[in-house]
């Protein structure tokens, strides 16, 4: 495992510790996630905010060995080196049209919120998540029979954290929580570019 989170992450303002606890390890134990625990992650995603309450998010979930192996061909090799041990894989999709059959400009934004809720509930339940952009979208669409009206955003590995020593050596140095930019670096006062700090 890694050292205490506080050695890698420090806040400038007081927030709930769950936000620091959530990070993206690559080492997974080959340990099954109980169904009720797994479904609680998607229950959390269910309550994310969405424009006009459209709830555009969808998830294709692989829980069995057979289902996970179906996902492997569209995951890039660099990610397969570590994610094949994860007991659960999920593909995150969003419906691009709203209930009036018009383009929903916030479909990706809202689905990102649902993913964030899922990831935080995973951390709350003692699980880890790692979202991957390194996959072949067209191949995923074909293999999973995803209709064209749905956008495909990411593949997520879900499970229990393993030891970094169980990873290929090339990943050892990166197996630790990452830091973030300071708040003052990404907010502006009144107009773009005007620093918000006083």
From TrEMBL:
Q: Which Pfam families match?
A: Nitroreductase
Origin superkingdom: Bacteria
Residue span(s) of domain Nitroreductase:
21-78, 81-160
The keyword Oxidoreductase belongs to this UniProt entry's keyword annotation: yes
Which keywords does UniProt give here? Oxidoreductase
- Keyword Membrane attached: no
The UniProt entry's sequence similarity note says: Belongs to the nitroreductase family.
Under which name does UniProt file this protein?
Nitroreductase family protein
Protein's organism: Scopulibacillus cellulosilyticus
């Amino acid at each position: 495992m890694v050292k205490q989170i506080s050695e890698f992450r420090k806040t400038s303002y007081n927030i709930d510790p769950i936000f620091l606890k959530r990070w993206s390890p690559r080492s997974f134990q080959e340990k099954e996630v109980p169904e009720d625990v797994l479904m609680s992650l998607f229950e959390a995603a269910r309550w994310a905010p969405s424009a006009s309450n459209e709830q555009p998010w969808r998830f294709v979930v692989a829980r069995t060995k057979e289902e996970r192996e179906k996902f492997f061909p569209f995951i890039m090799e660099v990610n397969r080196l570590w994610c094949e041990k994860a007991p659960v894989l999920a593909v995150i999709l969003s419906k691009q049209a709203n209930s009036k059959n018009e383009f929903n400009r916030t479909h990706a934004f809202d689905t990102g919120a649902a993913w964030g809720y899922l990831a935080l509930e995973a951390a709350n339940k003692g699980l880890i998540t790692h979202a991957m952009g390194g996959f072949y979208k067209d191949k995923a669409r074909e293999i999973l029979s995803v209709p064209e009206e749905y956008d495909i955003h990411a593949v997520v590995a879900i499970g229990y954290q393993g030891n970094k020593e169980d990873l290929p050596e090339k990943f050892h140095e990166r197996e630790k929580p990452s830091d973030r930019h300071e708040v003052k670096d990404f907010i502006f006062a009144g107009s773009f570019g005007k620093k918000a700090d006083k």
